[in-house]
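Why does residue order matter? Because the sequence determines the fold. Keep that principle in mind as you read this record.
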Amino acid sequence: MRTILTLCLAGTCLSAQVKFSPEDVVAINVDGKPFTIFRRGDKNNKPFLAPLRSASGKIVTRGFPMEDIPGESRDHLHHTGLWFSYDDVNGVKFWENDPSYTKPNMGRIVVTHTEWKDGDKSGILTAVMEWRDPKGKVLLVENRDMIFYSDPKLRIIDFHITLTAAQEVTIGDTKEGAFAIRLHDSFTERRGGKMVDANGRTGMINVWGKRSNWVDYTAVVDGERLGVAIFDHPQNPHYPTYWHARDYGLFSLNPFGQNSFDENKEENKTKLASGQKLAFRWRVVIHPGDAVTGGVEDLYKAYVAAR
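Structure:
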């Protein structure tokens, strides 16, 4: 039987005894309303958050492959809610790695520990994960803090991610990664969705493969104009990041690819000695309106100023 733990922000929770098993999930409520669920992803080869909701309760992520919703797109089985993975760590694929695939050299990201602390203004969920090659050998250890904030109009998650090399590793240059959200089909450009970056570029043709501080993706979801923004922190390696943002709803930043996005650039290989670390900070904001009416640039400035 699956056990669900609820992390409450600015709300009241009943205490519960939680026993973890391979199917356990952690549900996060904000201001008494469901926001998202952290899933270990044992059957998906990686952990993820899904679904994600706006403050008004609208779901902004695609349901598939976790849910079979009539009329919804069914491409890319490895696009699961919000996740972080990459497709070239010592040649091992952690991005295109759904268990149903027959691709060679697929790895798994396995959650080994979780803990949490709720609060009035914010709550934190911490997870430790092992990036394992096909033989089970650990290549990277990921320590992740996910901080959820209470706000009447916004839904905000901060991600503090540290990757530690468990052995000597090389992170290669590919477009297939890394910190990503598969958005609801309403966000596709063919259905009126629109992406814009911090430099004012709009549409996939102008945003994909470019570097920018942030990108915002907006759409009308169940009659309400909503936006989803991802912020790249100035302290991150390879800042500002490249964007692997597609017109069909894939919304991803990629700090490792370079030549894959710009053939005029040298191939980027990030080499880590055993025990060496890489640290990243990203923020996800779900807001009403578009990038302008939602004040995304001001939200980004506040994010940077607070660190």
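The two ends are 41 Å apart (CA to CA).
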